Amino acid sequence: MFKGFYSAASGMMTQQRNVERLTNNMANVNTVGFKQDEASIRSFPEILLDRVQHEKGIDNHQIPVRKRIGSLNTGAYMQELIPSFTQGGLQSTDRSTDVALVDGKVPEGKAGQKGSFFFIVEQGDEVRYTRNGNFALSNDGYLTTNDGYYVLGQNGTRISLTDNNFEISEQGVVTQNEEVIGTIDIAFSNNVEDLNQEGNGLYSVETPLPSAIGNAAVSYKINQGMLENSNVDSSQTMTEMMSAYRSFEANQKVMQAYDKSMEKAANEVGRIS
């Protein structure tokens, strides 16, 4: 069996997953607060090949000698998908229930990757995190996401309002009729790789994220009447997608060449006259 057959097959499977990643990014190019996935593609460990052959020595004795053939790459694979939490562009909506998070001072986390800020929402008995600030006012007068999850303020309290006439300061203080209603709590993650994607722009984590309020090491702003766009670069994504397709086709042609070689070896070389 040709070893390159497996290398080409692993390359095809890797690029298939890569295309799926890029397709998902492109499909969410207009999704509020969406963070694109980046791929970590790695190669399997290389194998160092040697061969043993016999050479003539003194008195024509055969001496086994080890000869270095070289390294053999055993293919590639997609190790993981890592969301990129770079800031997306801002879009003005003039709706009081729309808010956008703007990153300020963000310290670096693991492997030099910057952390990120999140709104905190209540999903049943659990807490989730999101960058989607496309909020609404529920029938019972609470600030919620469009999916009906309560937006939480400091100390896990809900934001209760009477109507859409309210103001939110850059630090998240909510006032209505000149009365302070509460402060929208903002969580901060210094290790975004620990976040698990839940779908619909929601993230979960095993250990609850700390609040960014009062943390002198970070800074952020909340812009009312604005939304954060997706951070997907459509032009770059299309370019990467075309490159992935070409790589897939190249590996496919390699497999076809090996298939023809194996067919010839089985039907012609191995034929007994």
From TrEMBL:
Keyword Repressor carried by entry: no
Domain Flagellar hook protein FlgE/F/G-like D1 residue range list: 115-175
Signal peptide: none
All copies of domain Flagellar basal body rod protein N-terminal, residue ranges: 5-35
GO biological process assignments: bacterial-type flagellum-dependent swarming motility
InterPro entries from the UniProt entry: Flag_bb_rod_N (IPR001444), Flagellar_FlgE/F/G (IPR020013), Flg_bb/hook_C_dom (IPR010930), FlgE/F/G-like (IPR037925), LlgE_F_G-like_D1 (IPR053967)
UniProt KW keywords: Bacterial flagellum, Cell projection, Cilium, Flagellum
Origin: domain of life: Bacteria
Alphabetical list of Pfam families matching this protein: Flg_bb_rod, Flg_bbr_C, LlgE_F_G_D1
Bilayer-crossing regions: none
Subcellular location: Bacterial flagellum basal body
A GO CC term attached to the entry: bacterial-type flagellum basal body
Flagellar basal-body/hook protein C-terminal domain span: 224-267
Family: Belongs to the flagella basal body rod proteins family.
Name under which the protein is recorded: Flagellar biosynthesis protein FlgC
